[in-house]
Write a structure and sequence with these properties.
By secondary structure, the protein is α+β, with helices and mostly antiparallel strands. It is built from 3 helices and 7 strands. Helix content is 17%, strand content 31%. The relative contact order is 0.26.
Length: 81
């Protein structure tokens, strides 16, 4: 299955992300299960969480300190909105 190209990511205060794909789909991904431990724990800080951006080419998302979530996880584990 081919994953559509990600066009936009919008962080929400509940630590979820609204994902907009070139297929026209809008999905919501819950980041809360990932916010623990030394690597992802920083995502619990709302100002830092809000710095998420789309990776060049639309293959995924990332934060400035290197945290990311695999594109297939973003797409498959998110729900339509």
């Amino acid at each position: 299955m081919s994953i559509p190209r990600l066009l936009k990511v919008t962080p929400r205060e509940d630590r979820s992300l609204v994902l907009e794909y070139d297929s026209g789909e809008r999905k919501v991904f819950d980041v809360n299960p990932y916010i623990s431990g030394s690597w992802y724990g920083e995502l619990g800080e709302i100002p830092y969480f809000n710095t998420v951006s789309v990776v060049s080419g639309g293959s995924g998302i990332a934060w400035s300190h290197g945290q990311d979530i695999a594109p297939h996880e973003l797409y498959e584990l998110s729900v339509s909105c």
